[in-house]
Amino acid sequence: MIHATTPTHRVFYNALLESGVSKNKAGIMYFAVLVGGPKWMKVIKGKPCGLGIDCINEIEAGASVPNGTLTLGEENAVLISRPADFGSVGFTKIMADDVPELIKQGEDLDRGDVERAAAEAMAGDLFFSNGDEVGGDLSGELEFK
After folding, report:
1. Residues 22-69 pLDDT 10s
2. Phi, psi (5° rounding) for residue 43?
3. 3-state secondary structure 4-17
4. How far, rounded to the nearest angstrom, does the alpha carbon of residue 1 sit from its chain's CA centroid?
């Protein structure tokens, strides 16, 4: 399972294919968005483990996500996000290291291949390792004026 692919990222990939972009070029553009695009996830109270055991993957939002922000989403859900990273040295290195292998696959390159390559390139990244939700213990009051 590839965690950091949101429906938005996949819609981008599918739109490229529907507009006539080749599978290989669409895959490379999708890879770029997966590794360098903006990321977001919902902060929830605890998070169940995959084995039916309850656990909490807690984070300290400010400390764990450099340049991260907390915002309110739909139904007052707390979201943690970070901006796109396309201009960074890290992004440039990932692209230089991984894109040549993706190009070699030609039109056999599929979404799963791209997602696996992105997950490997982003191993240890908070967003890839936690999916679209992360446990946290946020409390406080919001005052609207």
Report:
1. 999 999 999 999 999 888 777 666 554 554 444 545 444 444 556 677
2. -90, 120
3. CCCHHHHHHHHHHH
4. 12
